[in-house]
Amino acid sequence: MASFENKLKDVIIKLHEIEALKFGMFKMKVGIESPVYVDLRSVISYPEILENIADLMWEFAALRNIECDQLCGVPYAALPIAALMSSRSKIPMVMRRKEAKKYGTKKLIEGKFNPGDNCVIVEDVVTSGSSVLETVVDLHSEGLNVTSVLVVVDREQGGSHNLSEKGVAMNSLCTLSKILQVLKEAGQINQDVVDSVRKYIAASQIHPDGTFLTPQPRTENVNPSRLTLPFTARADQAVNPVAAKLLKVMVSKQSNLCVAADVTSASRLISLAESAGPYVCLFKTHIDIVEDFSPQLIQDLLAAAQKHNFLLMEDRKFADIGHTVSLQYSQGIHKISSWADLVTVHPIPGEGVITGLKSAVTNLHRGCFLVVEMSSAGNLASPNYVASSMEISKKHPDFVAGIVCQTSGTVQNPGLLQLTPGVSLDCQNDGHLGQQYNSPEDIVMSRGADIAVVGRGIIQATDPAQAAQEYRAKLWAAYEKRVSSVKNV
Ligand code: S5P
């Protein structure tokens, strides 16, 4: 039987074939032009695709442990999807009228329900989330509880954030980023289309009242998102003390560059810390690849970090049960917790991996980055995995400093940092080794990176100091452009 992931890919490709997903230039309801158009109304003409979407939505709801007493479809495109889901699951359905009837009973909600019933909204596409919020208001006014919405496509333009601010969790079957990835891999769209849609996503975050968070004309009540708020202001919103410190270092050094110091000798590691140190905010190590490791190396690293004002991150990618990671973090020859300000962690074992790490440190002047999406080709991070990982991050704001990911919509909270690897000036991937590169500008503007990780682009350069300087300048310019696109209009 096909996996959930393969069925999802199949549906995305079919939606493109029937032109429910289109690329070009389209005028949106909110008045801006968009390079992508998502309209699932036509899906009723293709019963098989409709059925597949409803099945996937139901499977997805089960994966997310979403339970409810009622389903509510938002007219029009989501109605048949909700109806099929209701028919399959035998969960009854209610329907919100677009307008209250002018005669007879002035019911807003059709269908039978009891006050206090838990209702999940089903929607086809979410942009700012305003239609869903209107539905939430009406359902609440009739006494129904609404805490979740199931969406087929999240356009990643602020909907998830706007809904969560109103206490409604958005669960999306797929995002625009996922659609781009699937259609690109299937050879149905080219890199230019991918780039233009990514730029558009980063540049058009929308508040539910219709105002743009980036980079459209700024209005008085704009509520800047993570992507547009300057690092200085974000330092105040960081709960983890290392994240706050890192943001301050970034501002004072005007650097959003992290060097991935993937070298195998102690002398090369220290030489890199000395040469690239002045230009980076973060120095990332894989300490287990150093062949002549000794405690002295740590002393030298700490001295370089102090001299050049950067933080240290050990990219250990912990991925075991809590008890084991607490030992791996604090014991052994590397004693990581004694020197690394930050570590990387895979959320795959569940929340225990974080509680385990936290149990190994007595003060919380340490933090971690959760690796929720990877840069490598064919990685297994599904939308479901990403969303569940983000839920874990919310439970430990004191320890989670940020998220390692590839797409701009993943991190909403301005107090968290997005760290993104896969950056190179020449953008040449490394073949069968799987790394996929983007340019510094793209990584910050389209993919939403706050900090970009550069390894071989710097360490294999003839002059690593000069290369670090060049990456820093390009990355910082891209960050300034991202922020000022809202500030200066
Ligand atoms: O998804 C990821 C996550 C990480 S932390 N992809 C990555 O490449 N990394 C790390 O970033 C990887 O372990 C390496 O240290 C660095 C990228 O190095 P580069 O030489 O490809 O720039």
Automatic annotation (TrEMBL):
- Asked if the record carries the keyword Transferase, the reply is yes
Stored SMART domains: OMPdecase
Q: Where does substrate bind?
A: D262, K284, S375, Q435, G455, R456
- What are the GO BP annotations of this UniProt entry? 'de novo' pyrimidine nucleobase biosynthetic process; 'de novo' UMP biosynthetic process
PROSITE patterns in alphabetical order: OMPDECASE
Q: Which UniProt keywords apply?
A: Decarboxylase, Glycosyltransferase, Lyase, Multifunctional enzyme, Pyrimidine biosynthesis, Transferase
Query: What superkingdom heads the lineage?
Result: Eukaryota
Q: According to its UniProt record, in which pathway does this protein act?
A: Pyrimidine metabolism; UMP biosynthesis via de novo pathway; UMP from orotate: step 2/2; Pyrimidine metabolism; UMP biosynthesis via de novo pathway; UMP from orotate: step 1/2
Gene Ontology molecular-function annotations: orotate phosphoribosyltransferase activity; orotidine-5'-phosphate decarboxylase activity
- InterPro entries, per database record: Aldolase_TIM, OMPdecase, OMPdecase_AS, OMPdeCOase_dom, OPRT, Or_phspho_trans_dom, PRTase-like, PRTase_dom
Q: Which Enzyme Commission number(s) are on file for it?
A: 2.4.2.10, 4.1.1.23
Domain Orotidine 5'-phosphate decarboxylase, residue spans: 256-471
Keyword DNA repair among record annotations:
no
Under the heading Gene3D superfamilies, the entry gives: 3.40.50.2020, Aldolase class I (3.20.20.70)
Stated family? In the N-terminal section; belongs to the purine/pyrimidine phosphoribosyltransferase family. In the C-terminal section; belongs to the OMP decarboxylase family.
Q: What is this protein called?
A: Uridine 5'-monophosphate synthase
Give the species.
Cryptotermes secundus
